[in-house]
Specification:
This protein has helices at residues 2-27, 40-51, 79-88, 100-104, 108-111, and strands at 28-34, 56-62, 67-73. The chain has 122 residues and is an alpha+beta fold. A 3-stranded antiparallel sheet has the order 1-3-2.
Length: 122
C-alpha cells in the first residue's frame, strides 16, 4: 500500500512542472516588425535591444526581409514597447521612425543603408 502511495506522490510531483510549462507557453505572443536594418551589425544591435527587455523570449532578424520576429510574454511587454526599443536603437520599426540621436550614433554604413564589412564605414 505504501508503495502505491509513494508512486502516486512521485507521479503527481513529476507532472506538476509540465503543467506549469504549458501555462507559461500560453502567455507567449509573436509579432513581426519591419526594420531598416541592412547588415550583420544592425542585426546584432536590434536583437540585443530586444533581448534587453524583460519578457522577450526570442528575437530573430532576417536580413533579407529586414523583418524581426519576436516571441514575448504579453504580461511583461507589449508590441509597442518592442517597436520603441528598435527605434531607440536607431532603426525604423514598422511605422515608428528611428530616433534621430540613436540613428546618428550608428556606424556610417548602417546610416547609409549599406552592409558593414569589417571596419568599413565605422
Amino acid at each position: 500500500m505504501q508503495l502505491i502511495i509513494l508512486f502516486i506522490s512521485l507521479f503527481s510531483f513529476a507532472a506538476t512542472p509540465v503543467a506549469d510549462a504549458s501555462l507559461e507557453e500560453a502567455k507567449l505572443e509573436k509579432v513581426t516588425i519591419k526594420t531598416s536594418a541592412v547588415g550583420e551589425m544592425c542585426k546584432v544591435t536590434i536583437e540585443k535591444a530586444l533581448y534587453a527587455l524583460e519578457g522577450v523570449e526570442k528575437a530573430e532578424l532576417d536580413l533579407v526581409t529586414k523583418k524581426v520576429k519576436v516571441k514575448y510574454d504579453a504580461e511583461m511587454v507589449d508590441a509597442a514597447t518592442l517597436r520603441q526599443a528598435i527605434s531607440a536603437a536607431g532603426y525604423d520599426a514598422d511605422d515608428i521612425p528611428a530616433r534621430p540621436q540613436a540613428k546618428e550614433a550608428l556606424p556610417k554604413c548602417c546610416k547609409k543603408g549599406k552592409s558593414c564589412k569589417g571596419k568599413e564605414g565605422v
